[in-house]
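call fold(seq) -> C-alpha cells
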Amino acid sequence: MPDLAEQSQGQRNIAVIGAGIVGVSCALHLQQAGFKVTLFDRDEPGSGATYGNACTFASYGSIPVNRPDLIWRFPSLMFGHERPLSIAWRYMPNMTPWLIQFLKHCRRKHVDRTINGLGSLLRDAEHASMMLFRLSGGADLISHDGTITIYPTSESFDADAINRQRRRNQGAQIQELTVTELQDLEPNLAPIFPHALLYPNGFTILDPKQMTSRMVDHLCQTGGHFIKGEVSAMEAQSADGVAFKVNGSRHHYEQAVLAGGAWSMQIAKGGCEELPLDTERGYHVLFPESGELLNRPVGFADAGFYMTPMCQGLRAAGTVELGGLNAAPNPERLSYIERRVRGALPDVGPVSDTWLGFRPTLPDSLPVIGRSKQNPNLIFAFGHHHLGLTLGGITGKLVGEIAIGATPSLDVTPFRPDRFS
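ret:
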C-alpha cells in the first residue's frame, strides 16, 4: 500500500470532533499519516462512554445485540427488570422508527451480515490499537490474562453453541473450561456455574480514561492540538472544507472527522445527512475494595455485563437500556448489576460509585465509517455501540486511509453511511 504520509501532502489540515477512544484513535492514525490534527471535545478526553466501560478489549465480540430471538422476546424487554437488555417504555414514541429498523435487522440474514462486518474489523483490531497504546506509553495499563464468560445453566450453555461457532468462524480463539478449571482460574467465584469459556486473546485496559489521556498527550507532544469546547453550527457542504463553531468562534478545516459518539447527529445538525443514530445506555457499579477478587474480566452470558479488575477496584459494567440521552439513571439497572455480582462473588465489598454512559448505536449494530454524501469533506466514525474500546484503533486506521483517498485496507462497504437510505 502507498505510504500514507506521502499521499497526505497538501491535505494536512484536519479536525477530529470527539475525544473518546474512537476519536483519539482517529487523530493519532491521521497524525501518523502526516496530517496536522486538531482534536475537539466539550469535555476532557476519555470522560464519556470511554471512561465507564467494562475495560475489555473484546476481539471475539462479533455477536450483536440484535438477534433473531429478540423479535419474540420484545414484549418482555419493555416490562422486565431481570434482563440484560431493557427498553424504557416512556421513550418509545421517540424511538419507534429506530426500533422498527432495529427489529428488522434481527432477521437471520441481517444478523449474519452484521457478524461478518464486525468480524472483518475485529480481526485487525488488536494490531491497529496496540500500535497506538505502545506509541503513547500505555503498555503498563494493559493486562493480558484473557477474558472469561460464565453460564448459569447447562441449558444456557447449549443454547449458545451456535454463537460460539459463529465467533470461531470469525477467528476468535475459545477454550471451554471445566468447573475445576474455572475454580482454578477464579477461586473466588461462587461454585455455581456449570460451564465457562476462556477467550485467551482477550485483554484488559486497566484504566481506559488514563489510556486515552496518554494518547492525547502524545498527540499534542508531537504537533497536534486539543481544544476543549462545544462544537456546533456545522455548515452544509462546502467545496473547500468543513466549517463549524467552537464556543461561538468559527473554525474551518480542509476535512473533518465526526467521532462524537452518541451526540454525533446533534453536533452535526444541518451540516450533513441525518442517520438513524440512537443510544445504548450502559451502567457500571464500582466495588473499590474488591479488585483482587478476580484475575481477569468475567462476563455473565445471560446478564450482559462484565466484572473487571481494574485500577480503581472491581468494576461491574454493561447491560443495555434503550432509553435515549435525557432520562435519569434507572436505579433498577444498578440494583440488577449489584445483585448479580453479589451472587457470583460472595466476598465482594461495598459499592462506592455508580455510572450511566451513552453508547452510540445504529439499527444494524454496525458503525458508520466513511464520507458523508451531503458533505464529502466530512468523514463519519461513530456508532460502535459497546465495542468502541475494541474498534477505536481499526476505525482510526480506516479513517486515515479514507482521508488521503487511498483504498481502505479492508472492505468498508458494510459501514457506508448511505446504507440506510
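Residues 1-9 have pLDDT under 50 and may be disordered.
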